[in-house]
């Protein structure tokens, strides 16, 4: 089956963003390894520009635009990390960015979008309101819509994190990434299936926003409705481009409770000194879950820590 991206597209994206994006480090922690019963290798995307993996996809999408198209600017709707990423990538290319954000987005993320020079348009925190606002801005400006995850160039860009991890750590048995809209897990799975077909790909998801888990169980895409989780970056539904990848190439979606997310986040801060946000902690919580610990034949696990944009005024503990 043809998916939204392949290894060639991911490698092209890596070349396109190389001069702009960080090659993030991989870290380890013996204490967390003992708790997991395995060796964990943390791909530190919280140290990426804008504090999240999202810069990879946004940068790839923006720098792939033709000059005459880019000149009119770009539009997106985002709870924060993608908005920041698009704002910075647009600034680097010298074009305008318009970011629709839900009015309950963390203040730290809204401030960052503004600091990168983008225009922020607030809306109600539901998908239909975000999409309606985006359509209005597109009509006003003639700009190009670059969605947070459901876009081939976004998916290819996110896959570059797995490309780097593959080069940094040999012989991984499995990789875990958090899943919300599915851009990161799709890019990860698409890179992995060609780099090492034996690599097992897992997604971590909050129980309070478990549309990917329910979709996998049902064998069909089930939209997210009324999500409730501290992992504010994982509130969106899978898209028509990301769902087939999750359906076919992700072995299992491991869901975790809110308390486990907070515990994993605190563990990463205290013991590994990895200052991640709740959405990133979901992947670690999945690795520490009884469900994942019970899987045989897995000794070395890559964990993609998706971001570090935490509201320091409202830490969950």
Automatic annotation (TrEMBL):
GO BP terms: D-serine biosynthetic process
Instruction: List cofactor names only.
Output: pyridoxal 5'-phosphate; Ca(2+); Mn(2+); Mg(2+)
Tryptophan synthase beta chain-like PALP domain segment(s): 21-307
Q: Which Gene3D superfamilies match?
A: 3.40.50.1100
Which Pfam families does this entry report, sorted A to Z?
A: PALP
Keywords linked to the UniProt accession: Lyase, Magnesium, Pyridoxal phosphate
InterPro entries for the chain: Ser/Thr_deHydtase_PyrdxlP-BS, TrpB-like_PALP, TrpB-like_PALP_sf
Domain of life (superkingdom): Bacteria
Entry GO MF terms: ATP binding; L-serine ammonia-lyase activity; magnesium ion binding; pyridoxal phosphate binding; serine racemase activity; threonine racemase activity
Kindly give the PANTHER family that the UniProt entry links to this protein.
SERINE / THREONINE RACEMASE FAMILY MEMBER (PTHR43050), SERINE RACEMASE (PTHR43050:SF1)
Q: What family, per the record?
A: Belongs to the serine/threonine dehydratase family.
What is this protein called in UniProt? Pyridoxal-5'-phosphate-dependent enzyme
Which organism is this entry from? uncultured Acidobacteria bacterium A2
